[in-house]
Write a structure and sequence with these properties.
It is an enzyme of class 3 (hydrolase). It is built from 9 helices and 27 strands. The chain is of the alpha/beta class. It binds alpha-L-arabinofuranose. Alpha-L-arabinofuranose binds next to loops. The site of alpha-L-arabinofuranose has 10 residues, from loops.
Length: 495
Amino acid sequence: QPTTNRLVIHADQGRYTISRMIYGHFAEHLGRCIYEGIWVGEDSPIPNTRGIRNDVVEALRRIKVPVLRWPGGCFADEYHWKDGVGPRHERPARINTHWGGVIENNHFGTHEFFDLCEQLGAEPYVAVNVGSGTVQEMMEWIEYITSDSRSAMAEWRRKNGRQAPWRLPYVGIGNESWGCGGNMTPEYYSDLYRQFSTFVKNFSGNRIYKIACGANGADYRWTEVVMQRAGRHLDGISLHHYTIPTGDWGRKGSATRFGEDQYHGALRRALEMETLVRRHGEIMDRYDPQKRVGLIVDEWGIWTDVEPGTNPGFLYQQNSMRDALIAGLTLNIFNRHCDRVRMANIAQMVNVLQAMILTDGEKMILTPTYHVFEMYTVHHDATLLPTDLTCADYTFQGQSIPGLSVSASRNREGVIHVSLCNLHPEQPAELQAELQGARVNRIQGRLLTADSVQAHNTFDRPDRVRPVAFDGAQPTERGFRVTLPPRSVVVLALQ
Ligand code: AHR
């Protein structure tokens, strides 16, 4: 007897806001993310504004990037900010020891990052160096960025071309301090966090939200120790979770040439985010029942083998319809847990891991993941509407995952948006939805799907996977019914 797919949307129970910061991004000095993907330099033939490429900024503005984390990643814990200010030709060359051992010329530094954020309309989120930096270095950076005084740091910023201080709302204190950021124990890190965070000062009216380094996936002990020892000194604690299709970091699997085993495996591992968010949240609840502290998932996404022939240290991978489904189901998880998840940053923005945009010289393409972020902008700062979903499983070789994924919200104009993913690669899904506390008169829909889960956009075929209008949903007396095509992401607007 096949399970009937049923959804109840509690339109009468909205309580929490889906922070638009959940739709945040991450750009590291890694491979071709910053250099080429964003920064081409003022003398480049690629159209740019003060060295930042216009096509990429224009595309990113369409997905309303709310916040951008920089400069890493592992790179953050070897980054010395003073290398990246002042005349560019005088900036020192360093070795990027984490990512390919290439030369970092420091042409993209603090001023260029804040310029990028202003061009995007995004909030800056700076990860400071704890692993190989000092408290003084961090203090001076924050003073340089935010102080309106006549202090030496503020004057140096002015000399380097920026009169007014910038606003710096988010600071991350160390990155993956359990790994590339220093291989620390949670006990040691908690003490270091307390020390560093004491000197994160609020200058000239700027107010900083302090984010501690959190766990690697299911390392619940890390969260426990940091919350217990440093919980009252922090505003947010991070979580990193990457989806490895095979589950094996040594042979992760290809981004575009995979069978159903790696398709199902990738979705199954991406869905683990639900458990991670819930269980880390339960630990946080014990130390912070008022939910003052945010869970900040500041690195997430699918991580595959690099494209054949590319530098393994550059983490350049293609992006398929599978990635779009991973984005859709993960963002649905974050939406549903927005009482605790206050920010998330997909890794990474351009040319690295699960990117929004891929570039090749002056050419640029939008990935299926980009389109999901664009379709889901309707959830930004909307009120979460709780949902109950009963659905058939999608089973492969004895392993089962729910066949559907959903979240719903109501925006300020009263429009209800429902984002749905049909994870089954071949079968459509019929869904009956009931709305409690609202009526549906009219439905508009958008659909992202493709002829296969491996389908992706290339520089020769940039529009193979892109959203189209969708009319597969109809109002019913109690809500609506919809037929979701196989391997699809659908966003419905109910009025
Ligand atoms: O996003 C790539 C790397 O993954 C980051 O630098 C690091 O924080 C994580 O291990």
